[in-house]
């Protein structure tokens, strides 16, 4: 059965936060990927923007799990997440040139099952197969300013149009623009295409019964500003770099396939911990 990627990603997306002791908290978004080890052992990996974790100084953050009750309701149940060792060094793996972080976690069984298979992360050929171009719609999940969709702690679903051209290959264009309002707390959230909501020029090239339900295009890492004014444009880092970061979990000494780091986008600001969401 083909999954509805929008619904599945909602279940796999979590809020990340760390109280700062002064009535504020640093907030970001993460999502879970199922990425078995080389020997086939199941493994759940938390993906987020590297700056989300870098901006959390304490050893433990909180990850926003949700518990389904027998009556059909849900309960928000954030749990401790160890992100630094006793000396303050980060326990996560980050991409050498991109704002991407990965951390292997022990998730509750229902969340481990909700993790999205790693093959849903887009590759360059995915964009070509779907004929993705400027003006196509993508969706994004996150917790803007630490807000959730409801008391159960589910993420807020937004959408926007691809606002740059061209957007592939990732080696040449490692990020692309998405036309939607970005707020602190959105950083690290997945940006994706779901078959159920595809519009515009996105084209399925396979038989409908065989076609994937969509793909994860990347993760939101920044917002665009000009003279301190938000332009309501998000910067998305390609999923290729999520794949590479997961690969570094297995082999930290593996050389990166990225040869030259691209110049930063003018006016870009981190879309999470640059500000602190009020409780």
From TrEMBL:
Taxonomy of the source species: Bacteria, Pseudomonadati, Pseudomonadota, Alphaproteobacteria, Caulobacterales
Domain of life: Bacteria
Transmembrane segments: none
Full protein name: Peptidase S1
Pfam families for the chain: Trypsin_2
InterPro entries: Peptidase_S1_PA (IPR009003)
